[in-house]
Structure formats: C-alpha cells, structure tokens
Write a sequence for this structure.
C-alpha cells in the first residue's frame, strides 16, 4: 500500500503539442519572407515603420492587459506582433511614423482589446487600424513612392491598381507587367508588393496546417471568376484575373488577413461563403467602386457576417437526417 | 492495401510498442479480492452471500436485477470477509464482496461442457451468456445478453467484431486476437446465431497487420470477412466503426441495432465462447498494464477484484515519477486517486505515467480544429460556450447528447480548453432537465 497522491482530471489525458502561441509564431515566421522583401524594396523607410508599429502595438497591448488585470505573459502569445507586422505591411511607404503609431494603437485598442482581447474581437485588428487611417488621413494613405529598385519621379508614382483605375493603363500600355507584380518590383503598400514572398509564406502556413485552405482558395476563385468574365468580354478595358490576383493587397489579404482564425467562420460551409464573399466584393470594388483597391473593406465587411454564418451553417451530425428534424 | 475509415478523428501517439510483443500472462490470484456488485451499465446486482460464507471459484455471488444488469461471480475460492461498500474505479464507492483467497481455486462442480454449442437455440445462448455475467469488455460494460436481444422489428444482418483497440498504449485486445483467434471467432459465431445475423465482419486497424492476416485466414471457415481499417482514433467507437465498414449511419439517439448491426469487442466474443461452451463465468479478463511509469509493462489475465496495487506490484511496481493512474486508455480512461481500487469487468488497462502540468488555458480563437476532428461532426467549441452560458436548449439542438466523449476535440484544442468537461456537464444538465420535465 502506498499513500502516494495521483492527479485527478477529466479525460482525455493526452493533449496535442500545438498551442495558441505556437500557431502565432508559425504565422510570424510565414510573414518573414514578405517582411524581408519589403526591407529590400523600401530600405530604411520600412525599418522605421516596422519598429514603430511593433513598439506601439506591444505597449498598447501591455497597457490594456495591465488595466484589465490580465497576466502580462499574454504579450508573449504573439498575436500583437502579428497585428503590428500586418499593419506595417499594409501602410504606404511614404507614411509618417506618427500615423503608423496611431494606426497601431487604434488596431490593438479598438480593434481587439475593447472586445475582450484575443479570441473575442469581431474584426481583424490590423484592418481596423488601417481602415481608421484610411478614413482619417486619406491623402497620406494614398501617396506612394517607388521601391528603391526603380528610378522614377516620386511625385507621379502610382500603384498598379491605381494606374489601372485612374490612368487607363491598359489603353496607354502602361499596365504593370505581371513579372514585376510577381517579384515585387513595383509600388504599393510595404508588404503587399512581392507576390513570391507572400506565396513562400503561404507554403509555410499550409505545411503547418495553420490556415484553412478554403479561405485563400475561395477568395482567389471568386475574384478570378468575377474579373475573368469581364476580361473575356473586354480585354481592352479590364485586366486579367492573374493581374488581379497578384496586384494590391489580394495575396496578403487572402493568406494572412482573411484567414485570421478569430474573425473567420468555424464551420466549413460558413468558411466557403465567407471566402467567396470576400473574393466577389474585392472584384466589385476594384472594377466598379470608388477605390482602386477593396481587399480591406471586403474582409471587414465579411467579418461582420461571421457570427451569422456560424449560426446557420452547423454541419450535419453523424446519423442526422435533416428533413425529419 | 486500401483501408477503410470514417471522416475526422485524430492521430495521438500510439505508444503500443511498450507491450505489443508481450504475450498475455495469467497473474496469480491475490490473497484478497474485492468484487464490486456494480461493474456494468445498469442496476447493481443483489448479493447472494454474506460474511463467513465459503465460496468456490466462479460461484455466483451477485444476482443481476432487472433487464439492464449482470450477475457477478467469485474470482477465487475462499471465505467471504465482508459485504460492504468499497472503492470503485468509477469514482463513487459501491457495495462489494471481499473474499479471502484460500489458494485452492476450487471450482463449482455442476458446470459441464457442452458438446456442440452451435446447435443451441438463440434463447439458450443468451441464457448462458446472462448466467455467466458477460458484459461488453471494451469499456462501457453493457450487459451482452441484452445487446444480443434486439427488438423483433429490427432484424440484425451483421455482427461486427471490434478489434480496433484505437486507444493509445493498450494492446490486450491485440494479444487476444493473436493468441485466441479461434475462441473469438467461435464466440462471434454464437453471437451471430443468437441474433439471427447473416455474417460476421472483423474490423482491425492497420497497425495490427499480423492480427488482420491471421483473421483473414481463419474467417474463411465462417460466413464473413476481415476488414482492414486505418489506424486513427476513435476508429473503434461503435458508430464510427459501423460507418467506416458499412457506410451506415446509426440515427441520432439510436443504437447499432437500428441499422441491423450488433458490435462486440474481441474480448467479449471470447467471453461469450467461454460462457457458452464451458459455462465459465466472467471472473477474469485481459488487461494491459503500461505507461512509462510502470517498471515492467505487461499484458495480463487478471482476476476480477484484484487491487490495482497488486497488479502494479506484479509488474515491478510504480516508478517514482508516476503521478497519474488511469483505468482504461489515455483518451477516455478514468483517473484514480488510489491504487486500492479493484480491477472490474470494464478495466481494459491500468496505466501510469508522468503527466505534465496543464498548460495555460487561452480563450477560444475560433480555429475550428475541434470541428474538423470531431468524429460525430459536432461543433464542440460552440457547445462548450452554450453550456458555459447555460443555454441548454441551444446545446441540445446543436447535438450535445450525440457527443461520445472521445476527447478528440480536447486533444487537438490549441487553447487547451477543457471541452470534454463542458460536454459532460452540459449532457448532465440537459438530461436532468429532461427528467424533470417528464416527471
């Protein structure tokens, strides 16, 4: 006989090793190729933006955790770092550091912590910060300069999508070549320009099964079908689906923002509707809206439907007969 | 070779290499056994002996009460020390008969072998199974005679013999399949006769290839086949196993007989054969004693009522670092606070290891992994939230009563939420509010 005491707990007694911080760190690692690409294309300007966003996000998060009497270790879960990186990557390289800080504070404070912190927010925090800047400082958010690898007159430089929308780029023959979109040798937000870097990150996410493949697939599918129909009807006026998929914030949005677990649906059916909705909205805004780019608003718009989608897309339980119930 | 399986599920570490090559070994009966009168799903048995009585090996000491009950038999010969409440691995003390072993193993004399058990009528087979106190040995301990008496309006066409043993660490079913294949198939044949089914299907996971090949060969003498299943948890869960093999869905709230199937564990099949052919009552069973904190992991044939401590001592004792003691598998087993509890009919394993301190619990990040892995296609995170906020009607309509508590959701949850705990609490609340309504 022994008087040894044993642990009493509810089954199961084995747990998978994956955890919330590990998921977050995989996302951070997956973002790094695009971060390095932006450092290469925008040099010191990029460094300044990343540092200001990181500091602002982490300090804001820490203050809120302290005020809400939550353990400060939550800072280490990596979610605030992701928000900081995503804000910086979706800012134009011309923007001042003060505005980057304001956007970061809004993202963490209004986008995340007022809802109750990680897991409870409705909207993607980084996009809340960006949407705030876009509305409050529209000029600063739409002034671009070319990457360090191109020599252009900075005053007249436009993004590929801006060119397409406002400068009749197809008729003029000045549409950004796909090759430049692919490598990132073009203007645009910090981390959005290099498709190849984002795709490398996407491969990391898929290999670790960190994101739901339905989301990027659904977005790109819907956008391609939508833009493809117009392109086939009139290729002199409308750009090809490949151009739309590679340009602007589509890839970073499809792989890194719409896939944010907290703000995307939990059921497979809901996820499909959410993803197809985003892709369709992006096409609609780009082709017929007032802005050249629509990824941010499309994701925020579909975020609002997530609770509803979850409620009405319960999967069929094993043994359930839908008609009888 | 192509394997069959069900959608969803998980792949926990198997850890079966600790014991899979170790043959079943009978453990000598201990000096004293504590035999609980409730070791099955249903009502406790009524004691037939009192303090001071002499009992023989296999003598009936508790009579099953009512339909959902099972008789209990002595696992040693000797003297009854007490009939009193005692620790039970289920958690709450239940009435138990304590018997001092005289070491003689004097058997009941009036038990006789039957020449041709296959000529018995279904009623006779069921009576003998009931008399021997046979219950499902997979863990749920449902009285077998009841399971073999499906209602008249649900004809049975298939007996599925469950050789999945999908819980990590456990290998006693595997050893039974390798060492007693004929007894298992004969028991399955008796179950087939008892239910009027047409065929027997033996389902075995592909991490037990040797057993599969053996059964593939042996089953040629019977009407039926052996099916290779993908190694995945919970492949052996009744409803998932039926779906994997025959693509039939047991209706919500229903039982396998609703789709013409009776599922029996391999150990139960062997117990059926023993009970019907020799009249041997269920007083011993195969268990796996394993886990990194057991000094010499083993597969044993253990007498019912043997204290866990005696079993662990027989396996070289518990290592210093063992801080968790589990009856059953690591996914669905019950933790024990004391090694004094006795082995019961539902004990498939005794496991001990060094459990790490629980990690930080985060709030749900809606990753949806619990949904992707739930074998019943439920939405565990949503169900847990409904239970937390006491929204019981919503929890019920989202299928909380369909949960089989397999633990896949909690295993996979990156936020380390105690999902199964919330499921159990919710099921309990829903059931008790239903009972109140009907009362």
């Amino acid at each position: 006989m022994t008087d040894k005491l044993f642990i009493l707990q509810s089954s199961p007694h084995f747990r998978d090793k994956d955890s919330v911080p590990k998921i977050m760190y995989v996302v951070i690692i997956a973002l790094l190729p695009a971060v390095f690409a932006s450092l290469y294309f925008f040099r010191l300007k990029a460094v300044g933006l990343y540092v200001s966003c990181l500091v602002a996000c982490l300090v804001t998060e820490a203050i809120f955790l302290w005020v809400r009497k939550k353990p400060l270790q939550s800072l280490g879960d990596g979610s605030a770092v992701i928000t900081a990186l995503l804000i910086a990557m979706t800012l134009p390289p011309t923007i001042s550091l003060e505005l980057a800080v304001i956007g970061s504070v809004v993202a963490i404070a209004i986008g995340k912590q007022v809802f109750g912190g990680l897991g409870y927010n409705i909207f993607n925090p980084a996009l809340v910060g960006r949407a705030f800047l876009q509305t409050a400082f529209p000029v600063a958010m739409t002034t671009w300069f070319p990457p360090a690898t191109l020599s252009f007159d900075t005053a007249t430089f436009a993004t590929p999508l801006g060119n397409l929308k406002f400068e009749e780029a197809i008729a003029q023959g000045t549409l950004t070549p796909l090759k430049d979109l692919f490598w990132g040798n073009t203007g645009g937000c910090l981390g959005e320009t290099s498709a190849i870097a984002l795709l490398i990150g996407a491969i990391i996410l898929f290999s670790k099964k960190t994101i739901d493949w339905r989301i990027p697939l659904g977005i790109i599918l819907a956008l391609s079908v939508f833009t493809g129909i117009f392109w086939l009807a009139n290729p002199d006026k409308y750009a090809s689906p490949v151009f739309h998929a590679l340009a602007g914030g589509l890839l970073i949005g499809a792989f890194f923002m719409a896939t944010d677990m907290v703000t995307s649906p939990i059921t497979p059916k809901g996820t499909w509707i959410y993803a197809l909705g985003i892709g369709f909205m992006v096409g609609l805004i780009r082709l017929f809206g007032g802005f050249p780019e629509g990824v941010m608003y499309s994701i925020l718009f579909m975020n609002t439907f997530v609770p509803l989608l979850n409620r009405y897309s319960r999967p069929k339980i094993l043994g359930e007969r839908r008609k009888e119930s | 070779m192509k394997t069959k399986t069900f959608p969803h599920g998980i792949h926990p570490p198997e850890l079966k290499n600790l014991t899979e090559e170790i043959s079943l070994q009978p453990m000598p009966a201990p000096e004293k056994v504590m035999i609980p009168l409730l070791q099955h799903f249903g009502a406790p048995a009524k004691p037939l002996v009192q303090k001071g009585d002499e009992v023989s090996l296999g003598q009936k000491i508790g009579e099953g009460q009512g339909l959902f009950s099972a008789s209990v038999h002595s696992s040693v010969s000797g003297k009854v020390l007490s009939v009193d409440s005692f620790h039970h691995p289920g958690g709450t003390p239940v009435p138990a008969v304590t018997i001092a072993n005289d070491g003689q193993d004097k058997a009941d004399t009036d038990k006789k072998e039957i020449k041709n058990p296959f000529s018995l009528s279904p009623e006779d087979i069921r009576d003998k199974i009931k008399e021997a106190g046979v219950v499902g040995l997979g863990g749920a301990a449902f009285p077998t005679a009841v399971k073999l008496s499906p209602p008249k309006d649900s004809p049975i066409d298939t007996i599925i013999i469950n050789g999945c043993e999908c819980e990590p660490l456990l290998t006693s079913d595997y050893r039974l399949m390798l060492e007693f294949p004929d007894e298992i198939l004969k028991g399955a044949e008796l179950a087939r006769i008892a239910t009027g089914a047409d065929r027997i299907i033996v389902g075995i996971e592909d991490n037990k290839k040797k057993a599969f090949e053996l059964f593939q060969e042996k089953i040629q003498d019977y009407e039926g086949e052996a099916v290779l299943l993908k190694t995945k948890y919970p492949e052996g869960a009744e409803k998932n196993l039926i779906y994997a093999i025959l693509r039939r869905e047991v209706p919500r709230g229903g039982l396998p007989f609703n789709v013409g199937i009776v599922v029996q564990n391999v150990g139960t099949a062997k117990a059926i054969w023993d009970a019907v052919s020799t009249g041997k009552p269920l007083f011993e069973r195969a268990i796996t004693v394993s886990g990194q904190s057991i000094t010499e992991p083993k597969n044993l044939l253990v007498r019912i009522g043997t204290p866990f401590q005696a079993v662990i001592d027989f396996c070289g004792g518990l290592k210093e670092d063992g801080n968790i003691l589990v009856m059953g598998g690591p996914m669905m087993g019950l933790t024990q606070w004391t090694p004094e509890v006795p082995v019961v009919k539902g004990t498939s394993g005794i496991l001990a290891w060094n459990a790490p301190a629980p990690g930080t619990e985060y709030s749900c990040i809606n990753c949806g992994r619990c949904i992707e892995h739930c074998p019943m296609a439920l939405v565990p995170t949503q169900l847990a939230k409904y239970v937390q906020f006491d929204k019981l009607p919503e929890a019920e309509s989202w299928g909380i009563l369909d949960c089989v508590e397999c633990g896949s959701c909690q295993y996979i949850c990156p936020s380390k939420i105690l999902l199964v705990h919330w499921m159990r609490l919710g099921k309990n609340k829903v059931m008790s509010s239903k009972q109140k309504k009907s009362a």
Observations:
- Chain A touches chain B through 46 residues (CB under 8 Å).
- The first helix of chain A runs from residue 20 to 67.
- The CA atoms of residues 218 and 276 of chain A lie 5 Å apart.
